[in-house]
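Q: How would the structure tokens look for this protein?
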Amino acid sequence: MPRFAPAAIALSIALPATAATPLDQVQAHLRATTSMTADFVQTDRAGKSVTGTLSLKRPGKVRFQYQKGVPLLIVGDGKALTMIDYSVKQVSRWPIGGSPLSVLIDPSKDISKVARIVPGGVAGQLLLEARDPKHPEFGTITIAFRQSPSAPGGLLMQGWTTLDAQGNRSAVRLSDHRFNVPISDQTFRWSDPRPRSNNR
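A: Here is the predicted structure in token form.
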């Protein structure tokens, strides 16, 4: 079964026409977007893929619901990012800020301190690379956007690639984006598989 780091994740971002630079445009739209859902395909370094559904609600809430048969769940409740492995009844938690994911779900974060636009995209594509220079152990995420007049602000996030401190690479591709839709806070709850005496 493929394994994925919690950082391997991303979402759609729109682009306000008045922003001065591509980085400013991403920052402005991240702050403007309140929620999003999308389908995803996630591929690990061995080439194994799983599918699932992403739900995002700012600030700080995210859920990666994997396909049936994959006993993993990743949930961000606004403060912590939690990975639950139901196959071994294990729960791991990180501060939201301890992952490149914070670039996407923390609207107050100044991404200019951790992100830059990088060359290499095809025509009509924008690549954003984020890495916290003070915390290289958090890994690197490279997010791909393409021009899309029908998407909010004219940009649609295609997906991302993450590289952790151990050199493990994972890729996510998004589809069927749905922007600024109502999402219940119940979506970001999860069932703890550990014995009650060990819970949280």
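The CA atoms of residues 18 and 134 lie 31 Å apart.

Confidence is low (pLDDT under 50) at residues 6-19.

Upvote if useful.
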